[in-house]
Design a protein that fits this description.
The protein has helices at about 1-35, 65-70, 100-120, 130-135, 155-165, 225-245, 260-275, 350-365, 375-380, 380-390, 400-410, 415-420, 425-430; strands at about 60-65, 80-85, 140-145, 170-180, 195-200, 250-260, 290-295, 315, 340, 440. It is an alpha/beta fold and about 450 residues long. The strands form two sheets. It has an eight-stranded mixed beta sheet with strand order 3-4-5-6-7-8-9-10, sandwiched between helices. Helix 6 crosses helix 7 (about 260-275). The N and C termini lie far apart (about 55 Å).
Length: about 450
């Protein structure tokens, strides 16, 4: 039997390799052809050249692609849906170190919107420039989504898989003028400040492999290598964008967000913006960097990640979501700033909060979000059980440790694990509860 499987496996491996090489060739020709002025092999949308919709007063209805809908509705493979989105200029008065549930909820929706932009650049017939539509309706201009080009179609991802260029990200920039405030929080009559939006796409295609690009096993205070490489590109692009639009660092406020891998990159970007705030290369004052990440995996081993300097970085996590539990804290990993925990099983108000979340989830997606409490308990404790099997990063080299960790993972309800991680679930939780229902934990 084993002998008959070998030719089949060989054929499959050859086919996969051939497809990947074709993808690499096609994308390389695309790059070369574009540089030399030849007609493109496929049309790359120019979302940044689109006319933005007129700004609307008050909340808007933001379209996005729901992962939950896409997974369960064959008639809606893109998962297109919409939800309420609000982001008031006045919310950005004052410093960023105080949690603001309105900004956080708006960012939860915008992180899903930025993920959805990939469908526009991915070559689908009915692609929608989700980021341009939402941000334009909120009054933002100078929307930039160019980074999604050549990073969104299937062939792009195949090429990235072959040539190892998966430590990248796609991201959205936008800006608008808002009324500034003085030290007392009273709006002054001086020129408007600049509010800059940065939304970073989550794990996409081959970029998923970047999650495993860790530093050496021994904790060294380093940032996650895969996330850091992507973050450095985003930071350099943001610096060019701010220079292009003539931003004055002293009068600039930056709001940074992202879901999942995008949240981890946003976490590192915010830390870097804060670190450079006191120097000649500052892009904005430290207390004007507003950061809200969602479902972000642990991004750093830095010993000072919980320091007061990073208090304005808020990382919203669902206790039953596995992704924010990885890489394991037992390996020395965490996130810069403050962890904001959504209601969990230990919360006395969990049942009532869950009912409200499920109501919001259904309103946004048309689907029922059914949670099994026993399965939730397994997900909540995953990091602790995994840490027993893999107490250090070196444990990955131990077959016994891997087997034990695999057994723990196999005992998890994977469908529930996915549901706990969906942007839809985070959006629904944020819409259903207020800041008083959340738990704030400064990283150690």
């Amino acid at each position: 039997m084993a002998g008959t499987h070998r030719p089949i496996l060989a054929v499959a491996e050859s086919a996969i390799t051939a497809l990947a090489l074709v993808g690499l060739f096609v994308v390389q020709v695309q790059f070369i052809g574009t540089a030399m002025g030849f007609p493109a092999l496929r049309t790359i949308p120019e979302a940044s050249a689109l006319e933005l919709p007129a700004a609307q007063d008050g909340p808007i209805e933001a379209e996005y692609c729901s992962e939950a809908v896409a997974a369960r509705d064959p008639d809606n493979p893109a998962g297109r849906t919409s939800t309420r989105l609000e982001l008031e200029d006045s919310w950005f008065e004052g410093g960023s170190q105080r949690y603001h549930h309105g900004i956080a909820t708006g960012c939860a929706v915008l992180s899903a919107v930025c993920n959805s932009e990939s469908h526009f650049y991915g070559g689908v017939d009915d692609g929608v420039p989700y980021a341009e539509r939402a941000l334009g309706s909120l009054g933002f201009t100078q929307v930039r989504t160019d980074s999604y080009a050549l990073r969104s179609a299937v062939l792009d991802q195949m090429a990235a898989l072959v040539n190892g260029s998966h430590d990248v990200a796609a991201y959205t920039f936008a800006s608008k003028r808002i009324s500034p405030d003085d030290a007392t929080g009273v709006v002054s009559g001086s020129d408007p400040d600049l509010l800059v939006f940065v939304g970073i796409r989550g794990s996409y295609g081959a970029e998923w492999l970047s999650n495993f690009n860790l530093p050496d096993a021994t904790p060294s205070g380093a940032d996650h290598r895969g996330f850091k490489t992507a973050e450095q590109e985003v930071e350099a692009s943001l610096e060019r964008y701010l220079d292009e639009i003539g931003a004055d660092p002293a009068r600039t406020r930056i709001v940074v967000t992202g879901h999942s891998r995008g949240g981890a990159i946003a976490n590192l970007l915010a830390a870097d913006l804060i670190d450079r705030a006191g120097g000649s290369d500052a892009l904005a004052p430290a207390d004007r960097v507003f950061t809200y990440t969602f479902a972000a995996p642990c991004s750093t081993q830095a010993n000072d990640r919980g320091g007061e300097a990073y208090a304005g970085i808020f990382n919203v996590v669902n206790p039953s979501d596995l992704v924010p539990q990885l890489p394991l804290p037992a390996w020395g990993y965490g996130r810069y700033g403050t962890t904001v925990e959504l209601p969990g099983l230990d919360d006395a108000r969990f049942a009532s909060s869950l009912a409200l979340m499920q109501q919001a989830f259904r309103a946004n997606t048309g689907l029922l979000n059914s949670y099994d409490v026993e399965s939730l308990a397994q997900l909540d404790s995953f990091d602790a059980s995994a840490a027993q099997s893999l107490p250090t990063l070196e444990s990955l080299l131990n077959p016994a440790g891997l087997v034990s960790a695999a057994q723990a993972l196999l005992g998890v309800d994977l469908d529930l694990a996915m549901t706990s991680h969906y942007p839809d679930t985070y959006i629904a939780w944020m819409q259903a509860v207020d800041g008083d229902a959340l738990t704030f934990v400064r990283q150690g």
